[in-house]
Amino acid sequence: MRQDTGVWIMDSAAQNQAAISRNFRAVIPPVTPDLVYYYDGTWEGWLCCVYESYMAREIPGDVLADGTGTKTAEENLFYSKVIKHDMEKSNRVCIGIADKIGHGFLRILQQVFCSCIPHKEEQMLLFTHKGFRYGRGILCLRQDPVVKNVLKGLHELGREIDKWYGFVRFSDVKGILVAVIGAKNNVLPFMASHFCDRYRNEKFMIFDKNHNMALLYRRGERAIVPVEDFTLPELSEEEKQYRVLWKNYYDAIEIKPRHNETCRRTHMPKRYWDFLTEMTGQDSCVLK
Questions:
Q1: pTM for this one?
Q2: Residues contacting residue 82 through CB under 8 Å, at least 6 positions apart
Q3: SS3 string of 120-154?
């Protein structure tokens, strides 16, 4: 396997059906369509869902995050279980996946958990069952619907990370660099190393308004924390002047006879435009 923009993908040489280990014989239980698991929305909470699935020898028809993990079974028309957060169970599952399938498989699950593919928790659960059944060679079975969805999630996550590397625009707010993004996937954990290394001598914050999370950095320290109701402060006159200069530079370097709006939208999709200084003028990045 190789790593690209922080996301693990398979090399073509690894796509070999013979890689499927014959030492894995874990039985995959049938899916129970009317069964729903509710969990607290955390990575550790999802690992507890894996634990419950194996202990009960069942696969739910869906796995849903209720934000707190306190939803009661009576609130759903179908048969449901509330899976409580238990660090001992989550650690046991995490170690089991790493030991029996591999650390690479575990990293894939962690990355897919940050993606925005539909029903990702259920797909990841099925993917894990198949991993214990066939081993890490399951990634070679690209026509399997579950594997296909997982790889699609990895691709979309990696693609968006790569876009935001170039589309983050900082503003100087009282000596702190501040940027606002609106990502579909939870990209901040994968962008952290890039920006902390690039701006190692600065203080900065990257706020993802779609996930209400922020990457905070000051020299030698960084953290990703939940942030609610953030609004970019009033810009200084100096910052506004820099924005005008950047906008003028952007407009000046364009070759007018070769202007191609369709091509620009291909390389710079419109959903990013609200966060780009050159596309929205000097008042860009203000939350709406």
A1: 0.80
A2: 38, 39, 69, 70, 71, 72, 73
A3: HHHHHHHHHHHHHHHCHHHHHCCCCHHHHHHHHHH
Instruction: Report the largest interatomic distance among the alpha carbons of the chain, rounded to a whole angstrom.
Output: 67
Closest CA to 214 of 174, 182, 243: 182
Q: By three-state DSSP, how is residue 175 classified?
A: coil
Question: Using the 8-state DSSP alphabet, how is residue 209 labeled?
Answer: T
For residue range 150-200, list pLDDT tens digits in order. 999 999 999 999 999 999 999 999 889 999 999 999 999 999 999 999 999
Q: Are 38 and 82 in contact (CB under 8 A)?
A: yes
Residue among 244, 212, 258, 236 nearest 67 (CA): 212
Instruction: Please report, as a single letter, which amino acid is at residue 96.
Output: G
Mean pLDDT for all residues in the chain: 85
Nearest to 160 by CA among 195, 192, 129, 184: 184
Q: What residues does 173 pair with on adjacent strands?
A: 176
Partners of 171 in beta bridges: 178
* Of 61, 5, 54, the residue nearest 37 (C-alpha): 61
Q: Which two tokens stand for residue 54?
A: 């194996």
Distance CA 241, CA 250 (A): 14
Is residue 115 classed as helix, strand or coil in its secondary structure?
coil
The sign one gets for the Cα dihedral 86, 46, 34, 136 is negative
pLDDT tens by residue, 21-80: 444 456 788 899 999 999 999 999 999 999 999 999 999 999 999 854 455 444 555 588
Q: Phi and psi of 147, rounded to 5°?
A: -60, -40
Q: Can you tell me whether residue 278 is helix, strand or coil?
A: helix
